[in-house]
Design brief:
The protein is an alpha/beta fold. Helix content is 41%, strand content 16%. It is built from 13 helices and 13 strands.
């Protein structure tokens, strides 16, 4: 049977956002539906992340949580890969779900590509971050025998910006846990929801302008924000900052919100769009990045650079919420983590 090694040495729980969700759901689903012989190589800070697959902890890898510690650990593992490489010596294929091929191996390898935002929106990244990604990410992706892109949008950007061979790049869309993200018999309330850290590309300022225009006609409407990065930053009247919330709290918000508004300027995928749809929440989202691909015809799309367009889309959505909710529930059925796992397994079989 084909032996697949999954190297997760750069995993830091609670620090990697959607990529950690992808890793944990992928492993859990491979444990449930996978047919190959898997073994996961874990860092000391994430010893419980195997998701039910056979695993071992790489005690040779330095414990690392802060950015400085992580850079030092990666540098040491790259400079002295021998002990870590021996842990993967019997693998026929090695997958690096977090992009960086650490430790490098002689077996055929697979790397996952989440986005190329540092090339598409370079002004949002420091010179040091762009330099690190240019060396570490680009080299890893170009050296992999296969690249798994999380959307067709990301696949095309990788081919265009990194010169990746189209024959080596496969698409495996992300998904949601349908047992968790599902409707409930609760009344929807008069608030919009935007679950996003306050990073520049998340586009909060234009959303605030659109929300202010809506409030002139609908003064009872509120906007609820979740995610980090809001502390100390001003928000307009009617905006409520919840900050970091648990997954259960987020599900509750999806079920009660009048609509999800997602004005991000750039997404490699955009899982919140599917999470909201799974909970029956109507969705309005940007026509940028991968979002049109992920949302399909089940969301009202808008130009995220135009606050008037954001407001107009929300008016359209709020005028017929039941119809958009039904579209979303139908659309989201196409996405499952089990299907994602099987798509990954097909890539492993190609190389083996």
């Amino acid at each position: 049977m084909t032996r697949v090694g999954i190297a997760l040495l750069t995993l830091v729980p609670g620090e990697l956002g959607g990529s950690e969700t992808y890793v944990r759901e992928l492993l859990r689903s491979l444990a449930a539906v996978g047919e190959l012989d898997y073994r996961v190589l874990l860092p000391p800070v994430a010893a419980d992340a195997a998701g039910g697959l056979p695993a071992e902890v790489a005690t040779e890898y330095r414990r690392a949580r802060t950015i400085t510690e992580r850079l030092a650990a990666m540098a040491l593992a790259t400079a002295r890969p021998g002990p870590l490489r021996r842990r993967l010596a019997d693998a026929d294929v090695v997958h690096y779900p977090l992009t960086l091929r650490i430790p490098p191996v002689r077996a055929p390898s697979v790397a996952t590509l989440f986005d190329l935002q540092h090339l598409d929106l370079p002004a949002l990244f420091s010179r040091a971050e762009r330099a690190f990604r240019a060396v570490a990410w680009h080299r890893s992706l170009r050296g992999a025998d296969r690249v798994i892109a999380i959307s067709s949008f990301v696949r095309e950007r990788g081919i265009e910006l990194l010169g990746l061979d189209p024959d080596r790049v496969r698409v495996a869309p992300l998904a949601i846990d349908h047992a968790r993200y599902r409707p409930a018999a609760v009344a929807r309330e008069r608030f919009l929801l935007y679950p996003a850290r306050r990073w520049p590309h998340k586009n909060h300022e234009r959303l605030f302008a659109a929300f202010a225009a809506l409030r002139r006609d609908e003064p009872d409407l509120r906007l609820v924000l979740t995610g980090g990065g809001h502390a100390g930053l001003p928000v307009p009247d009617g905006v409520e900052v919840r900050g970091l919330v648990s997954e259960d709290e987020l599900v509750d918000l999806y079920r009660r919100a009048a609509a999800l508004v997602f004005p991000s300027l750039y997404e490699g995928f955009g899982i919140p769009v599917l999470e909201a749809m799974g909970c029956g929440c109507p969705v309005a989202c940007a026509n940028a990045g991968s979002l049109p691909e992920v949302a399909g015809d089940a969301a009202v799309l808008f130009d995220p650079y135009d606050p008037d367009a954001i407001a107009a889309a929300l008016r359209e959505l709020l005028a017929a919420p039941a119809a958009w909710s039904a579209r979303g529930l139908e659309h989201v059925r196409r996405f499952s983590w089990e299907a994602t796992a099987r798509a990954h397994e097909a890539v492993y079989r190609e190389l083996a």
